[in-house]
Design a protein that fits this description.
Blueprint: H1 2-8, H2 15-37, H3 39-51, H4 69-84, H5 86-136, H6 139-144, H7 147-189, H8 191-198, H9 200-212, H10 215-238, H11 240-245, H12 249-300, H13 310-352, E1 372-382, E2 385-396, E3 400-404, H14 411-417, E4 426-431, E5 434-435, H15 441-446, E6 448-451, H16 462-467, H17 475-484, H18 488-493, H19 511-525, E7 529-533, H20 541-555, E8 559-563, E9 575-580, E10 583-588, H21 590-596, H22 599-609
Parallel strand pairs: 3-8, 3-9, 6-7, 7-8
Antiparallel strand pairs: 1-2, 1-4, 4-5, 9-10
Bound molecules: adenosine-5'-diphosphate and magnesium ion.
Magnesium ion (MG) binds at residues 411-412.
């Protein structure tokens, strides 16, 4: 229930919808019930014709109170009948029925419109919160979660919330109200009959609760399975080349198929339960009607005092047949609400996940990088395993620092500490003598441009990929950046120049072209500090040269931290740091390190021998 109300709280301000909704519904329900109640005077009038064709009906009994709707209406109908005749009375009764139907339906429309607005508004807010929150989470979160699971939470789970949680809103406000109005009517006609028929309700309720019991757990399972399926789909689509190259399609198909089957199994079993609830309540309904017809019949044909006249009895049955609809809607929404609550919990969980790396409350923006970045005794690891062990060094402003060492030594991890993608277990990363945590993350990241081995591009135009997030970038600036990145020529040669769309992740470009666009993107930001992680390692020799030229342009007059697999490219670095298994084993310039005859020299020799 708590989940339910939290989900509703996304409809803020709820009063804007709830108050008109309740008002409209109330009017529509009251007039809707009245329609049926009007059947009684209609029939009395008609039956009156059959019973006494010539004489006017008996003088009607004045009702005790206006609350006794039936007596009141019978009274007026009969009075009218005695004054203007049957023909006219019939006409009037019909006019009243038609107007009441009209009013009821107009307000029904208004109330449904309000509800629809509320639903749309809730989902708008829910989707926005969940997406915004996902974007605020730190990178570590994404390392540990399945992407598809997040995707299914934002898309299909929110949709499920729409169908069941906000769907049941209608039921929660409206149907009990309808039910109550009907019940009052029924009591007014005959309390005996109504009490009798209500005996069946607890039995039906018990049966249905038995049926829907396990639904919530199954719903959770089904959402998780669906998330897996989306993950597989996502992986399969992004890895389609490799899948085909390795002839792994059967394996991938199989994996998807298994999950698909599991999902269908759960859905089938859930559907079975949900479907069962409806015939059961239907049967219970018929049982009640049968009982009522029998018992009501004895009330009409009662010898001593007739407790019910036939017209009332027919109106009673008419209303009673209507009562099944809200009752069924309530029982059905109980079964569908489980699925919605389960989905809602998943969505709320994601909304409640807080990033572990946040700005300190008193963090201030850093405006300028003046002196140096310093690592002091930094220790860091993933989960339990230590990856960096008491690392200390500094990156002076204007210098280039290269990180080298065997793969898995912790170079990329070390680099991730600078933009604060991750946080040290102990030790400090300092900028100009201040712990990086004293500054806001955004301002620290503003100082840096990052180029990785994986070129992250978006399915958009080349211009937008270079300007990325910088809405004020002009054509001249973008072109200047592209020139520095050696990208201008090939961009001009493309079909639509800077307005060419590059496909998902930039598939329409070659590796070297993608990389140069990434470099242009970094250049445009013009940050004082560049972080390059194996920016050329994915490239062939020819495009590597082009990219390397671009990188050299980029690093001019800038502080840079470079990780390069090809050691020849970092020989001119001001400082080379050799990392092995999370420790710094050597530091110095190329010449110094060669002279030391240590790990660096061994790495250089290995590369020279392998012929690169
Ligand atoms: P390098 O860049 O020097 O090749 P990395 O910094 O990428 O090395 O990785 C260092 C170690 O940390 C490796 O043993 C790797 O398995 C581990 N590692 C890297 N990223 C993660 C991660 N997200 N979760 C767990 N372990 C990781
Ligand atoms: Mg790496």
């Amino acid at each position: 229930m708590k989940t339910y109300f939290r989900l509703l709280s996304f409809a803020k301000p709820i009063g804007r919808y709830a108050i008109p909704y309740i008002l409209f519904t109330l009017i529509s329900v009251v007039f809707g019930t009245l329609n049926l109640a009007l059947v009684a005077p209609l029939l009395t009038t008609l039956f009156g014709i059959n019973q006494n064709p010539n004489c006017p009906p008996e003088p009607p009994v004045k009702p005790d109170s206006y609350f006794d709707v039936f007596k009141t209406m019978n009274y007026y109908a009969a009075e009218l009948n005695s004054k203007v005749g049957i023909q006219q009375t019939l006409l009037w009764v019909c006019v009243v029925i038609v107007s009441s139907v009209l009013i009821s339906n107009i307000f029904k429309y208004l109330s449904e419109k309000t509800m629809e607005n509320l639903r749309i508004h809730t989902l708008l807010n829910l989707r926005k919160s969940v997406f915004n929150n996902v974007m605020n989470l730190d990178l570590a979160y994404f390392n540990n979660e399945r992407k598809g699971d997040i995707m299914s939470k934002v898309s299909s789970d929110v949709q499920t919330v729409q169908f069941s949680v906000t769907g049941t809103l209608q039921v929660i406000f409206k149907e009990p109200l309808t039910l109550l109005t009907y019940l009052i009517m029924l009591f007014l006609i005959s309390y005996k009959l109504t009490l009798f028929s209500m005996l069946v309700i607890p039995v039906a309720g018990w049966l249905i609760s038995k049926i829907v019991k396990r639904l919530k757990q199954q719903a959770t399972e089904s959402h998780e399975t669906y998330g897996n399926m989306i993950s597989y789909l996502d992986e399969a689509l992004s890895g389609i080349r490799i899948i085909k190259a390795f002839n792994a399609t059967p394996y991938i198909k199989n994996r998807f198929d298994n999950e698909n089957k599991r999902y269908s199994g759960i859905i089938r079993s859930m559907a079975k339960r949900i479907q069962l609830a409806s015939p059961v309540s239907e049967f219970m309904g018929v049982l009640m009607v049968a009982g009522i017809v029998y018992y009501g019949g004895t009330l009409i044909t009662g010898k001593q005092n007739q407790e019910l006249n036939p017209a009332e009895f027919i109106a009673y049955i008419a209303i009673f047949s209507q009562i099944m609809r809200p009752a069924k809607a309530i029982s059905q929404s109980f079964s569908s609400i489980h699925s919605g609550i389960a989905a809602g919990e998943r969505v709320l969980n994601l909304i409640d996940t807080k990033p572990t790396i946040v700005n300190a409350p008193d963090a201030k923006p850093i405006t300028e990088f003046k002196d140096q970045i310093e690592f002091r005794d930094v220790t860091f690891g993933y989960q339990e395993r230590t990856v960096l062990d008491r690392v200390s060094f500094s990156i002076p402003k204007g210098k280039s620092v290269a990180l080298v060492g065997p793969s898995g030594g912790g170079k990329s991890t070390l680099m991730d500490l600078i933009p604060r993608f991750i946080e040290p277990w102990s030790g400090e990363v300092r900028i100009d003598g201040h712990n990086i945590k004293e500054y806001t993350m955004e301002s620290v990241r503003d100082l840096m441009g990052i180029v990785n081995q994986d070129t992250i591009l978006f399915n958009d135009t080349i211009f937008n990929n270079i300007a990325f997030g910088n809405l004020s970038a002009t054509q001249e600036e973008v072109e200047a950046a592209a020139r520095i990145a050696n990208a201008h020529e090939f961009i001009l040669a493309a079909d639509n120049g800077y307005q060419t769309r590059i496909g998902d992740r930039g598939v329409k470009l070659s590796g070297g072209q993608r990389q140069r666009i990434c470099i242009a993107r970094a250049v445009l930001r013009n940050p004082p500090l560049m972080l390059l992680d194996e920016a050329t390692s994915a490239l062939d020799t020819e495009s590597e040269r082009l990219v390397q030229d671009a990188l050299n342009n980029l690093m001019k007059n800038r502080t840079s931290v470079i990780i390069a697999h090809r050691l020849s490219t970092i020989q001119s670095a001001d400082l080379i740091i050799v990392l092995e298994q999370g420790r710094i084993v050597e530091t110095g310039t190329h010449i110094e390190l060669l002279a030391r005859n240590g790990l660096y020299r061994k790495l250089i020799e290995m590369q020279t021998f392998s012929g690169s």
